[in-house]
Design goal:
Organism: Acetonema longum DSM 6540
GO biological process, one term: cobalamin biosynthetic process
Shape: elongated
Order of helices and strands: EHEHEHHEHEHEEE
CATH architecture of the largest domain: 2-Layer Sandwich
Protein name: Precorrin-2 C20-methyltransferase
Keywords: Cobalamin biosynthesis, Methyltransferase, S-adenosyl-L-methionine, Transferase
Strand order of the largest sheet: 4-5-8-6-7
CATH topology of the largest domain: Methyltransferase, Cobalt-precorrin-4 Transmethylase, Domain 2
Helix content: 25-40%
Family: Belongs to the precorrin methyltransferase family.
CATH superfamily of the largest domain: Tetrapyrrole methylase, C-terminal domain
Distance between the termini: 50 Å
Strand content: 15-25%
Number of strands: 8
Number of domains: 2
Length: about 210
């Protein structure tokens, strides 16, 4: 069985569109909705329903594959499923993936760290004061999920001396790919859900 995670019932899964040509015709594909909301009660119900579906297949002796973008242990929906199943006696195999920021830095030829550079991986959804504190001490930063507040994040990077050496990348590897090498030009522009900024502090500010 192939578990197909979605944010919404009617939304096409990018992860599935990438792997579907490798899935055998006899493989059963099951949709599982993992809503991106902060309502813990609603989330708990969704996770419990999906856990029940997966357990039913496992108890039938079937193998279950959970597909996800990036690495399964970094800001991944899979982590919730892993936590629910890891102590139930079933063998779980985690296959490493390529995180978005690694794909972006290689794709754009943007070295993210050298020598003793300190790199921070930060969700842009974190509290602004927390992000600012991280930017104060790191040499390079990866800011993920910037789609909601990209203007605010770019403003912080300008203030902290990162904006001159940064890349904003959206939907890398797809037909909708967008690469912005002067992020100041994108400050007031909307960007997609799959958007990440990688940045290095200017050498004179280190």
């Amino acid at each position: 069985m192939c578990s197909l995670p979605r944010k919404r019932k009617k939304r096409e899964s990018l992860a599935f569109s990438i792997v579907k040509r490798h899935i055998q015709p006899h493989t059963q594909v099951v949709d599982m909705v993992f809503p991106m909301i902060k309502d813990t009660q609603a989330l708990g119900g969704s996770w419990a329903d999906n856990k029940k579906k997966i357990l039913e297949f496992l108890q039938e002796g079937k193998k279950v594959v959970f597909i996800t973008l990036g690495d399964p242990m970094l800001y991944s929906t899979y982590i919730y499923v892993f936590k629910l199943l890891q102590d139930l006696g079933h063998q779980v195999v985690n296959i490493p993936g390529i995180p978005a920021f690694c794909a972006i830095t290689s794709h754009t030829g943007f070295p993210i760290a050298e020598w003793t550079d300190v790199v921070a991986i930060v969700p842009a959804t974190a509290a602004p004061d927390k992000i600012e504190k991280v930017l104060d001490i790191c040499d390079a930063a990866v800011l993920m999920k910037v789609y909601k507040n990209s203007s605010q994040i770019i403003g912080m990077l300008q203030e902290k001396g990162f904006a001159a050496n940064a890349v904003l990348a959206s939907d890398v590897g797809t037909e909708r790919e967008m690469i912005v090498r002067n992020i100041s030009e994108a400050k007031d522009q909307p960007c997609s859900y799959l958007s990440t900024i990688v940045a290095r502090r200017a050498a004179q500010n280190r």
